[in-house]
Amino acid sequence: MAEQPMLKFVKIERDMPEKREAGVRREDFHEIYAEYADAKAKEQASRCSQCGVPYCQSHCPLHNNIPDWLKLTAEGRLREAYEVSQATNTFPEICGRICPQDRLCEGNCVIEQSGHGTVTIGSVEKYITDTAWEEGWVMPITPKTERAESVGIIGAGPGGLAAADVLRRAGVQVTVYDRYDRAGGLLTYGIPGFKLEKDVVMRRNEQLEAGGVNFVLNCDVDADIFTSIRAEHDAVIIATGVYKSRDLSMPNGEAEGIEKAIDFLTASNRKSFGDEVADFDSGRLNAEGKRVVVIGGGDTAMDCVRTSIRQGATSVKCLYRRDRANMPGSQREVQNAEEEGVVFEWLSAPKGFTTEGDKVAGVMVQKMRLGAPDATGRQAPEVIEGADYVEEADLVIKALGFEPEDLPTLWDTDGLEVNRWGTIKAEYTTGKTALEGVYAVGDIVRGASLVVWAIRDGRDCADAILEQFNATTQVIAAE
Ligand SMILES: Cc1cc2nc3c(=O)[nH]c(=O)nc-3n(C[C@H](O)[C@H](O)[C@H](O)COP(=O)(O)OP(=O)(O)OC[C@H]3O[C@@H](n4cnc5c(N)ncnc54)[C@H](O)[C@@H]3O)c2cc1C
Ligand code: SF4
Fold this sequence. Notes:
By secondary structure, the chain is of the alpha/beta class. It is built from 19 helices and 18 strands.
């Protein structure tokens, strides 16, 4: 009788792809995990218990058919695994790399809950689609018919690009506008290469362009351009993300050497592309030879500390006002950062900065403890009196989160409704806004969120627009 290919979690231990040694990986911006060898991917996929109610699938925002593509991988039917995987996810190899799997699919894997260690879903997902690219299974976008309708998408991040992909495959004329010179949004200029190498993003941009998506880059959409985009297209999708950095209002907060995380990360990513970046070359946004303090405990802070290490900082410290268990960033990323030499100062909050002349010289830190839980059950940090100290620093990076820009004012559109956080009010599952023919997806609707949610929104919104168009079909060229 043929051997049962699945349920091997009892015999086979969880095994991630090899992680590069910390001393080696801190020298470059390459990804830190190697690819699975074929046999290893098969073996790890075979650990799946194929449970009747796959919680991994229900906790994946895209409801990926995970048990099926794991089984196909275990059986060596990789091309079919790829077909199933890409049916629900526009960028599986990107999600496989950067989804916080511990909070989504893998965190809800049933064998994890029985103490056997989760199936390495993200790594297998990445392996399947990387292999598909290598083998030439990722096909160009070739719509069966061309349609007359056109959609203008403002913002070339994962939300906008996922919508572009679905619409273009259906033959819609798609134009994506972005203020940057390269598409990809935060995949390109926010997230560092050690989590997501840039050629992985660029080949997707090229695939979309080759498939007929028209990109208008270096186009910062303002009120006039928004009006003309609306006039030009049958529907418009706003996918502009959230870029206004939260700030600290405290003594000497304007001193030289105190920088925003997004500026620091964008400069670093641009250098990795080989671009000239004046603020990096001048040393302003370069951590080399500096004592760096990063303020914040989210994923952006983790990316800043690890980027600083790679740029050759002499020391890197991360200040966070709660403790390790209560930080918003991924525990996996904290561990990676610690291995690379980052020091975390938990329960520490800034109250101002010391200076030498115009330049920052240190962060005035107050020590905190966690008080009683608030109405949400979260323990609020409280100051410990008399425990203040100064953390010396040459470069301070503020990674305190992002807020939306005020689009109704910037684009002079009274009818575009926003909620009290300034994010656009859009209908759940379609992205429809209060403005006729205008939709919105991704972070500009959700607030700072995740790539996988932006993809989900983009796909849902594209489906809703197609449904709308199909009510008045306008095919212009048959196959
Ligand atoms: C440093 C950092 C690390 C992150 N790490 C992770 C991670 O590991 N995993 C994860 O899942 N998520 C991560 N995220 C979150 C994730 O990147 C976002 O949730 C996701 O990119 C949102 O996609 P989006 O398409 O809505 O917007 P974005 O990716 O922000 O794209 C928006 C695009 O709109 C363009 N744009 C904005 N305004 C205009 C305008 N007026 N005119 C023209 N173009 C405009 C921008 O240039 C940009 O290209 C991270 C975020 C940051 C900042
Ligand atoms: S898209 Fe993200 S959450 Fe869904 S299966 Fe892949 S890694 Fe898990």
